[in-house]
């Protein structure tokens, strides 16, 4: 399920953004140019992150899962960003606490049902330290796609 929303051109490896605003500007520009989102996506992401932070403190590596409103999404996507250096984000469960984040999964989905299923699947996977380490050490966009497909679809099929 997740692999249908991830494309090579939506993976940023070792991005050099220095803060959330710079990263969201870069992400929104790329997504807008490619037709994935409408104008205003960057502002929405920043405002939503201010109101409802998405940082997750996992102990081994912190992750954030910012997600856009369906009204801004033209074509559903999952964008994966691995940063060179961590940026500061606030915790989802304690918005007053800032944490360094090096990996982001930016969701742009327009189906409520799929949105919840994908979010649930991602949340389960990112709680696996080995999974996060593999993504942090992947050498290519294809490697990230393969890991996400293998670590999500593969496990789902095993249950069936």
UniProtKB/TrEMBL annotation:
The PTS EIIA type-2 domain is annotated at: 4-151
Query: Molecular function terms in GO for this entry?
Result: transferase activity
InterPro entries given in the database record? PTrfase/Anion_transptr, PTS_EIIA_type-2_dom, PTS_SugarTrans_NitroReg
Task: Please tell me whether the keyword rRNA processing is annotated for this protein.
Answer: no
Q: Which UniProt keywords apply?
A: Pyruvate, Transferase
Q: Which domain of life is it from?
A: Bacteria
* A Pfam entry, by short name: PTS_EIIA_2
Q: Where are the transmembrane segments?
A: none
**PROSITE patterns attached to this UniProt entry:** PTS_EIIA_TYPE_2 (PS51094)
What is the protein name stated in its UniProt record? Phosphoenolpyruvate-dependent sugar phosphotransferase system
